[in-house]
Amino acid sequence: MNKEIIKIFDTTLRDGEQSPGASMNTEEKIQIAAQLERLRVDIIEAGFAAASPGDFDAIDKIAQRVTNSTVCSLARALDKDIKAAGEAIAKAKHQRIHTFIATSPIHMEHKLKMKPDEVIRRAVDAVSYARTFVEDVEFSCEDAGRSDIGFMKEISDAVIEAGATTINLPDTVGFRLPFEIGAMVKEMSEYVKGRAIISVHNHNDLGLGVANSLEAIVNGARQVECTINGLGERAGNAALEEIVMALKVRSDVFGDYTTNINTKEIYPTSRLIATITGIEPQPNKAIVGKNAFAHESGIHQDGVLKHKETYEIIRPEDIGLSKDDTLVLGKHSGRAAFKDKLAKLGFSLDDEALNASFERFKILADRKKEIYDDDIRALVTNEMTKATQIYEIVSLQLMDCSEGVPSAAVRIKKEGEEIMDASIGGGTIDAVFKTIDRITGYNGSLEGYNVKSVSEGKDALANVTVKVSFDGEPAVIGHGLHLDTMLASARAYIGALNSYLSMEGKLKSRHCDSSQTV
């Protein structure tokens, strides 16, 4: 018996990036898209082309890079959005435009201020215009979870007639329970059978995103929209890795369905995205959390030693997690071995970036006895941010504050010129950041600070992530990596400033967006 393929629509680069603190630069997005293709997702929603020139550029570059997965751009039901989406994905081998408009009474009345017949006309015009760019058009009934099903049938009829091939039913606010999602999907899938594919996009506000997605599949949905590590607005989206592995592990229940996902790329993909965004999955996160395959209880340890399946329903190697493949590089490793390791970790760098990363690796290997996979991920990701480097930390000196006021002296390079200054602060970190403000002339307000050990041991790299608002603008993220935590902190702060300066136009353009979510 042939199994039905459930299409996996990954929106990590669009909805996932809307997670507070998850902004990514273009190079980082390209690396993630390449890894999603290795994961074999069917559709990559690469972004929202109309949101900013930066988003447009990232989608355009991803469209040129990806050859197997479909590249998709989100667009509101507006001509300017759809035109931007069509132009951004024009170079993709497989193209899709995803347009949407709200269909729930509360959204139509209070957000759109439109009558139902106006919404239908806008939706039809949007789909018709999208079809002038691509053949593959997806239409979403935003807030479908709170929409009248009769109205959704009416608008679905209209947009299918206009050329939509996928009808997406988002539970935009994560409100519905599994049996409610199941009933809605069953009725809608039977209604559009033979005319369009039903898709679901479930948010996790009540912790039911994955459960709702699985219930939708058994009731007729043939596409699920999801993100790696469950990233997304508010409480996030249904997690790709949980949906895929539930279908695989519980084949006794979901035996009629499968996906095209290469599950051995799940863990590498999760780690790449966690490293780039600075958002780590919670330790007890299903499938990819660091404790997902850990056993501390004596009873559990005894059982696993005797027979793994006593307490493990998934083999770590099935998701690409191998404890035996972590300590393979050191200071004597060559460029070829380093390049091969990067490929296994999901990185594909040009010669210039490879050389720069290799040099940093050799420096680290001279100072650190054991190099872990996460060290390399952090090192290469940190190197990527230098594409937009305006300011660079040259040196940092901290004054003895055991009996005095904390102070710091910082030397910064800009356009070949080095500038040095010093400042005092309420603490050492405060002194460092205030000195950077003095030198650069930009005033930053620290909204988040996190430091974590990249790997194991006393010589572990410190990976610092900061969230900073400069001059009252929306906050940006910066990452810093070094064996010295204070220097890593300074680098993270400078990284945030560099991101702010390179993304300033993008940030301002986003203020005009009335909605970017489905």
Description:
The chain is α/β, with parallel strands linked by helices. It has 4 domains: 4-277, Aldolase class I (TIM Barrel); 293-322, no CATH class; 323-384; 386-509, Double Stranded RNA Binding Domain. 41% of the residues lie in helices and 19% in strands. The chain has helices at 26-39, 53-65, 79-88, 105-112, 116-130, 149-162, 178-191, 209-218, 240-249, 251-254, 266-277, 298-306, 335-344, 351-367, 373-384, 428-440, 485-510, and strands at 4-5, 7-10, 43-47, 70-76, 95-102, 137-142, 166-171, 197-202, 223-226, 257-258, 391-398, 407-414, 417-424, 444-453, 462-470, 476-482. A hairpin with a 5-residue loop joins strand 15 (462-470) and strand 16 (476-482). Helix 14 (351-367) crosses helix 15. Mean pLDDT is 88; it is low at 505-514.
Based on the model shown, name its key terms.
518 residues, alpha/beta, TIM Barrel, 4 domains, eight-stranded parallel barrel, three-stranded antiparallel sheet, 17 helices, globular
Short description:
This protein is an alpha/beta fold. It has 17 helices and 16 strands. The strands form 4 sheets. The protein has an 8-stranded parallel β-barrel, surrounded by 8 helices.
